[in-house]
Amino acid sequence: MLSRRNLIHGTLAAPLTLASATALADTFEDQCKAALTPHMDFPQLGRYRHENARLIKSRAPVDVVFMGDSITEGWKDKRPGFFSTGRIDRGISGQTTPQMVLRMMADVVELKPRAVHIMAGTNDVAGNTGPMTPAMTENNFEMMSDIARAHGVKVLVASIPPAASFPWRPGLETRSRIKVLNAWLKTFASASGATFVDYWPVLDDGTGAMKPGLASDGVHPTEAGYDAMATVVEPILARALRHNRRA
């Protein structure tokens, strides 16, 4: 590993050409990446860093960024055709809303989308990054929405999908917690000028659980689950993008 002493007394002792400076920077970046742990990159900004850079460089127009956790990430894996030109998936498995707040600039705003679809909260209820109260989740949704609106990005706030239980948190009561947050999300969307995307009519079995066949483990949608969700969001996207045209 290159230490600071080596950099000063070794590599930098020789004349520093553009090529050697570039190689040095690349080496140092590789070492930093190798040393990273989840605790050192809490929001996981490195996950989409290269993809974001390529997209920005291409100047390809972005219609909507889907910000979320594994439910969003799995959408592209199971139904890649849904992510046609202009639709960008920025879901990361296991993430909570505080992590997403920290990703908003790099993974959403800098891509200059017309809209952002935020679906989060499942892992807040699960406590993936520590215990969270409903108020903490609500504050994070407000921050994400504020960041988006400050940059002219239309906000779509999605309901947290139903779940009778979480396989990775056995014994945790989920239904009432999700219900409370969804009630707040609907009210918040209306009050803030965001659009509420309610997936419950097509996913909920009437008890706060996923309908049979729409989730592989009671939480993560199957192909059929994502197809059902698409029927809800497609017309909403059409309206939102029609009314939020690029300058």
Key features of this structure:
single chain; 247 residues; alpha/beta; Rossmann fold; five-stranded parallel beta sheet; 10 helices; 48% helix; 11% strand; disordered N terminus
Question: How would you describe this protein?
Answer:
The structure is a single chain. It is globular and about 45 Å long. Helix 7 (134-150) packs parallel to helix 8. It has a five-stranded parallel β-sheet, sandwiched between helices. The protein has ten helices and five strands; from the N terminus they run H-H-H-E-H-E-H-E-H-H-E-H-E-H-H. With 247 residues, the protein is an alpha/beta fold. Strand 1 (62-68), helix 4 and strand 2 (87-91) form a beta-alpha-beta unit. The protein has one domain (61-242): SGNH hydrolase (Rossmann fold).
Total helical segments: 10
Q: Count the domains.
A: 1
From the coordinates shown, what is the CATH architecture?
Answer: 3-Layer(aba) Sandwich
Kindly report the spatial arrangement of strands forming the biggest sheet. 2-1-3-4-5
The CATH homologous superfamily is termed SGNH hydrolase
Q: End-to-end distance, in Å? A: 49 Å
Stretches with pLDDT under 50, minimum 5 residues: 1-16, 18-25
Instruction: Give helix and strand order, one letter per element, not per position.
Output: HHHEHEHEHHEHEHH
Beta-strand residue percentage: 5-15%
Computed CA radius of gyration, to the nearest angstrom: 21 Å
Average residue pLDDT:
88
Given this structure, which CATH class is correct?
Answer: Alpha Beta
Which structural class best describes the helix and strand composition?
alpha/beta
